Amino acid sequence: MPHRLFSLALVPVIVLAAAATSWWPQAPSTDLDDYGVLLGTWVGHLDYLDGDDLTRERLATTMTCEKTYSPRHDEPVLTFSYNYDARLRVEARTDEFYIHGPTVERSSKLQLISNTRIEVGERWEIAEHDLAPDRISLVLTREGEDNNRLASFRQLIVADADSLVMTEEVRYEGTSESFIRNTYRFSRQP
């Protein structure tokens, strides 16, 4: 009889363990294929708060994302190539363009370090994630400096087949309020 009681007591534990694996959050992926929705050409703008922490600017921006290989480590990375048309600044309040200066090109790489870390210019901790073939949502965090002040950073990346939004928030050490340093808003180019 004790053997039968032990078997019956074990059944609920096995059922609970099986159920937990179906709803328990999965670890972030370390496979770049899970970030495939980012690939392609995107057009939109960059809104950013200037270094004075008062002036907001908007630049017309295009971005291309492609899978490449890191020459240093011969590992796959996503390469983001940005083209900021600083000649076409957008007046944020009126959405009117005005001529200012030359175009600027920049690139960055996204590399998966582990299932909890990602590198996009800087090393970030993956605080939250939701990866699906047709959409992704990431919340990344890190500590560092902004405007020569110690700060905490939070980056939100949300993408689907048609749109991509990347927002970086900053909170200076010793303050309780965070602010948006920059936001990219893109639509996919066909």
Give the total of beta strands. Answer: 11
Uncertain stretches of 5 or more adjacent residues: 3-26, 91-99
What best-fitting shape do the alpha-carbon axes yield? Answer: globular
Oligomer: single chain
Helix-strand category: mainly beta
Distance between the termini: 69 Å
- Work out the helicity level: 10-25%
**Order of strands across the biggest sheet?**
1-2-3-5-6-7-8-9-10-11
Task: Compute the number of helices.
Answer: 1
Radius of gyration: 22 Å
The biggest beta sheet reads: 10 strands, antiparallel, barrel
- Written as H for each helix and E for each strand, in order along the chain, the element string is HEEEEEEEEEEE
Strand percentage lies at over 45%
**Arithmetic mean pLDDT:** 81
Which secondary structure elements does this structure contain, and how are they paired or packed?
Layout: H1 2-23, E1 40-49, E2 56-69, E3 76-91, E4 96-98, E5 103-112, E6 117-120, E7 122-132, E8 135-146, E9 149-160, E10 163-172, E11 179-188
Antiparallel strand pairs: 1-2, 1-11, 2-3, 3-4, 3-5, 5-6, 6-7, 7-8, 8-9, 9-10, 10-11
Give an overview in words:
- The longest helix is centred in the N-terminal third of the chain and has 22 residues.
- It contains one helix and eleven strands, in the order H-E-E-E-E-E-E-E-E-E-E-E.
- The protein is mainly beta and 190 residues long.
Key features?
190 residues, mainly beta, 10-stranded antiparallel barrel
